[in-house]
Write a structure and sequence with these properties.
- The complex is a heterodimer.
- Chain A is an alpha/beta fold.
- Chain A folds into 2 domains: about 140 residues, Peroxisomal Thiolase, Chain A, domain 1, CATH 3.40.47; about 210 residues, Peroxisomal Thiolase, Chain A, domain 1, CATH 3.40.47.10.
- Chain A has 11 helices and 11 strands.
- In chain A, the strands form 2 sheets. In chain A, strands 3-2-4-7-1-8-11-10-9 form a 9-stranded mixed sheet, with helices on both faces.
- In chain A, a hairpin with a 3-residue loop joins β10 and β11.
- The two termini of chain A are about 15 Å apart.
- In chain B, β5 and β6 form a beta hairpin.
- The radius of gyration of chain B is 15 Å and the shape is globular.
- The two termini of chain B are about 30 Å apart.
- The chains are: A alpha/beta, B mainly beta.
- Chains A and B meet through α5 and β5 of A and β4, β5, β6 and β8 of B.
Chain lengths: ~400, ~130
């Protein structure tokens, strides 16, 4: 399968800025912090970076969700990119990574820095409602018009529908769902960069207030300020750098109808995520049983169950039992899951925390949270659009 | 509850004003008969342009629901129930709505019927448990 573009691409650097709630540093400063650290981590000079990409680019939308454009970042870093991209569409937040893969495989760029910056904690300090979906005008338009007038002001309301339908169909319990938050926090306790590091118990989880049933407080991710950056390099330019190259073994992507207000399926699965998983497994000889750790998108806890099943890591309806009690998803379990604790505890970096954590694990830099001998990691991202990657270290 | 109303836009205004005569309308393709919601300029099934609003029975079932407890905005009265209704006309033809019911009544599979609530020039299609 050497003709697939991702086989020509490696992750050679990964780093994060400070992640805080809020950070005194501006979104552009955080972006620079992460990009420069990732480039240094790769052992490259900034002048060797010839491409830059981000999700989603800069938008006038408030709430700190899209505070930095790739042009601003390039100017600040003194880059002269031959290839640049802001990708707000399609296959989830991984879209700039997939596009960078094609740019590198086509020879448009050798070393691309991909960043994702959020400044949602600062935005909420200014106005708590800024991260809601209500928009600025007197009335709501576009896709949010299908939900906001009925009182669904946050994405949690939409994904609570999935949680309720899943629990009803598979008789999943609050205790099973709560195991995800407890496990995530236990991992965050071992991650010095995480926001919330005090362990919680299942009783703490159950005692916390309900946000949108059946989802409780600890089922929801944490708004933060922070930036993550990755350096993607052509395979031929990845050798002899500072870290062993991490091969992009396979990628998968799919768009779902959700972002346009359309729903497919019966709310007990994410059909779009399953299509992304199908694509991913069609591009590798590795199998789900050969995965050493999983960094599964968990903007809300229910995503973990939906993604685990979509990626065929467990059978449909089995995720709730697989994660129950947290043993099998612990650091020494059969599938160590979300080993950095994000984003339920480490902060909502829109899935880039997961990618960063996968690299940390594959480089053996996990410290107290290191999964022994991790050589393969699967990463998924997104609730409205879907992306997944299989990363492998030689 | 504080309602933020939808802007009346050309392709979707029919949905928000449909309740003026007490009937819910959903876009349907005259060529292949497929219903689709939200409305689009063409039929996503056969790509024909003969799409337009057509009255539906207003009956359906709760595909899923959630009880929102979070007061997202000051003065927002909670809890309230949000639901995805699968309309009787077609499998997986969904309309998102507020379920006007008690928490005890809310359940997946619950038969429901549309009921409009007027705010200015908008007739919001809410749903209530179907009474036999």
């Amino acid at each position: 399968m050497t003709s697939l573009p991702e086989k020509l691409v490696c992750v050679t650097g990964a780093a994060q800025s400070e992640v805080a709630r809020p950070s005194p540093r501006s979104a552009l400063q955080l972006t620079a912090d992460a990009c420069l650290a990732a480039i240094a981590e790769a052992g490259l000079d900034v002048s060797e970076i010839d491409g830059i990409a981000t999700y989603p680019g800069k938008s006038s939308e408030g709430g700190g969700i899209a505070p930095v454009s790739p042009s601003e970042a390039a100017a600040m870093l003194g880059l002269n990119p031959r290839w640049i991209l802001a990708s707000s569409e399609g296959f989830s937040h991984m879209a700039p990574i997939f596009n960078a893969v094609t740019a590198i495989a086509c020879g448009l760029a050798r070393h691309v820095v991909v960043f994702r910056t959020v400044a949602q904690a600062s935005a909420r300090r200014q106005a708590r409602a800024s991260t809601l979906m209500v928009g600025g005008g007197d009335r709501v338009d576009g896709n949010n018009a299908w939900t906001v007038p009925f009182g669904a002001l946050s994405p949690v309301n939409t994904f609570a529908l999935y949680a309720q339908a899943y629990c009803d169909r598979y008789r999943a319990t609050a205790e099973q769902l709560g195991a995800l938050a407890v496990s995530s926090r236990a991992h965050a306790a071992r991650n010095p960069a995480a926001i919330y590091r005090d362990p919680i118990t299942l009783d703490d989880y159950l005692a916390a207030r309900t946000i949108s049933s059946p989802l409780r407080l600890y089922d929801c991710d944490v708004h933060v300020d922070g930036a993550t950056a990755l350096v993607l390099s052509h395979r031929d330019a990845s050798r002899d750098l500072r870290r062993p190259p991490i091969h992009l073994e396979a990628m998968g992507m799919a768009v779902g109808g959700l972002w346009t207000g359309q729903h497919e399926g019966d709310f007990t699965s994410l059909p779009g995520a399953a299509r992304a998983g199908e694509m991913l497994w069609s591009r590798t000889d590795l199998t789900p049983g050969q995965i050493d750790c999983a960094q599964i998108y968990d903007g809300f806890s229910i995503f973990v169950w939906l993604w685990l099943e979509a990626l065929r890591l467990v059978e449909p309806g089995e995720a709730c039992r697989f994660t129950e009690g947290g043993h099998r998803i612990g650091l020494t379990g059969e599938l160590p899951l979300n080993t950095g604790g994000d984003p339920l505890s480490a902060g909502r970096l829109h899935g880039y925390g997961h990618i960063h954590e996968a690299c940390i694990q594959l480089w053996g830099l996990g410290g107290d949270r290191q999964v022994a001998g991790a050589r393969t990691a699967i990463v998924s991202n997104g609730g409205y659009g879907y992306g997944a990657m299989l990363l492998r270290r030689e | 509850m504080i309602r933020k109303l939808p802007r009346l836009e050309p392709d979707t205004a029919f949905f928000w004003t449909s309740g003026a005569d007490g009937r819910l309308r959903i876009q349907r393709c005259a060529d292949c008969g497929t219903w689709q919601h939200p409305p689009l300029p063409r039929c996503a099934e056969c790509h024909g342009e003969a799409v337009g609003p057509e009255p539906v029975s207003g009956k359906g079932r709760i595909a899923s629901y959630t009880v929102n407890h979070e007061a997202w905005l000051p003065g927002l009265a909670v809890p309230y129930i949000l639901a995805m209704v699968e309309l009787a006309e077609q499998a997986q033809l969904y309309v998102f709505t507020t379920l006007v019911a008690t928490e005890a009544e809310a359940r997946t599979g619950l038969p429901v019927r549309v009921s409009f609530e007027r705010h200015e020039d908008i007739w919001l299609p809410l749903f209530r448990p179907e009474t036999p």
